[in-house]
Write a structure and sequence with these properties.
CATH architecture: 3-Layer(aba) Sandwich
Shape: globular
Largest sheet: 6 strands, mixed
Bound molecules: adenosine-5'-diphosphate, magnesium ion
Strand order of the largest sheet: 4-5-6-3-7-8
Helix content: 25-40%
CATH class: Alpha Beta
CATH topology: Rossmann fold
Number of helices: 9
CATH superfamily: P-loop containing nucleotide triphosphate hydrolases
Structural class: alpha/beta
């Protein structure tokens, strides 16, 4: 299902954090939302997830750190069961096995609490939980910033492979243009609460039109990082 939202805006305490914004994402599309810290990326991500859920879309949101999604007092199995019941889904061992295999968390002990798992495994578990309901859109906010680059690249590779033959679209929110450029087919650039540029990745890298995009492109050496 194509995702289409217009007039999305956010104000807090009289300050406009997100100016009226339109977002269109095709099924299965890979879109990067890039921009400097404080430009409004997370604000847009949250507003988009809320608005799409109100429209009846199934949308998964993977926060920046697994700590935001996992309760340290609850077992991993508890989190999984809770995610299933939130979606009104009966427990399904085969679905769990397939997602665990896809994201290489099949060795994880579900009786353990989050801190019994490595950060990379926790992050992949949170991604897998988001995929339980086969969402129309997966929104990942700075998904690799809590991980070391090699572990992060591995998680992104596994996710890429899993999504490749599905219709789930991906919105990757990151301040890292290199990460977005390497993996996303279209980039939206944010600056001071507005999307100032929205173009296919190759076109944007070849000819950034705005000062914000030019500033991001100056750091093209980031493309050399593994993720
Ligand atoms: N709950 C809030 N109340 C007031 N200001 C906020 C709130 N959340 C974020 N902001 C401000 O909104 C701007 C955009 O923040 P954010 O969306 O987190 O940017 P980014 O994710 O691009 O780093 C920043 O100036 C931030 O300080
Ligand atoms: Mg943010």
């Amino acid at each position: 299902m194509t995702i289409s939202i217009s007039g999305l805006s956010v104000s807090r305490s009289g300050r406009t954090l997100l100016h009226p914004t339109t977002v269109n994402i095709e099924p299965g599309e890979r879109v990067g939302l890039v921009g400097a810290s404080g430009s409004g990326k997370s604000t847009l991500g949250h507003a988009l997830v809320d608005a799409l859920r109100r429209q009846g879309h199934s949308v998964a949101h993977v926060p920046q750190s697994p700590d935001e999604a996992l309760d340290p007092l609850r077992s991993m199995g508890f989190h999984w069961a809770e995610a299933e019941s939130a979606l009104d889904l009966a427990p399904d061992v085969a679905r769990q096995k397939a997602l665990f295999e896809a994201l290489r968390i099949d060795g994880g002990d579900l009786r353990k609490r989050p801190w019994g798992w490595s950060r990379g495994m926790q992050q992949r578990f949170v991604i897998a939980m988001g995929l339980i309901g086969t969402p129309d859109l997966l929104v990942m906010d700075e998904p690799t910033s809590a991980l070391d680059p090699v572990v992060a690249a591995r998680s992104m590779d596994l996710l890429d492979r899993y999504l490749a033959d599905r219709q789930t679209a991906l919105l990757l929110i990151t301040h890292d243009l290199g990460l977005a450029a390497r993996r996303m087919s279209r980039l939206m650039v944010m600056h001071e609460g507005r999307i100032v540029e929205d173009a296919p990745t190759a076109a944007l890298l070849a000819a950034p039109g705005t000062a914000a995009a030019k500033a991001l492109c100056l750091h093209r050496n980031w493309l050399a990082l593994p993720c």
